[in-house]
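Researcher: Next sequence.
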Amino acid sequence: MDVISSPSAPGRHPTAAQAEMSPEEGAARGGPRRGLRLRRVREGVKAASGLPWILPALLLCVGLIYYCIGYTGYISSLNWDGISPNPASVGFGNYTAIFHDPLFWGALEHTGIFFAGTFVAQTALGLIFAVLLHSKVRLAGLYKVIVFVPVVIAPAIMAPVFREMLSPTGQVDQVLRHIGLGMLAQPWIGQTSTALPSIMAITVWEWTGFSFVLYYAAISQIDESVVEAARLDGAGNLTVIRRIVWPSVAGTTVALGTLSAIGALKTFDIPWLINQAGPDYATNFLGTYIYQMVIQLDHVGYAAALSILLLFVAVVFGVVLQSGWRNRKVMQ
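Model: Next structure:
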């Protein structure tokens, strides 16, 4: 004899009316466990209904990112030129060699100096421009465009222009001689003492507009009544910036710090296009060093190990910055 299904029959799926029942009604009719069971069923159905929408992005992410990272990790254990069909396995030999490589440590030092210098300069200039253009300035829209234009200029166009300007016969030295400061004229990108600061100055010019846009948007979210109340209490411009504006844009500063750290770790285009990481490796960064190992020297396994180490450093940078920000919020 067939068993007639009932709401209390064990092992039976809930009816449509029961599925629409709230957890409270389910708890009232079948006890707390039945109400919890119905709620979990509804949550599972909702989660499953969204899976087809995220599946393409998930497959793309796994296929193009995580698979490539895993394959790079595998290559990093090989002594391989990228062509030979029978590469030799060296285990962790490439990683051991990295820590005895003076060029690697030099590139890492340049990357750290580059990050610290460009981040401080871009942050300061971006905040200053954002504060100034939030005040009542004539032609503010034009100034915004002028500040942001360098961000959209391609490095392939920018690099030869600055290479010409900073050469011994370039416009920078000509201007210095014209205004009576000829003793300061020098090959800015042709000597080790000034090559790295020159690359940093170009990068600051290029990306200050990006910092400006983020700070401008953050300042726009500050309640004007708070600023007006502070001014009524006698606060000057510097006090308002230090006590109100700067704490309010702290989250933007952390985001810029994270982006600047990642940008410094993958810096390649400007130093390579201007003087190919020279002179004497003075502008050699981790990105340019990996390129040299792969393209010029065919050390694909060693370059893969450098890439994995670069990824590790980037993750550590991000975790440290985000952890510092969370701890600051908790202390507040």
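Model: Residues 1-13 have pLDDT under 50 and may be disordered. The longest helix spans residues 32-75.
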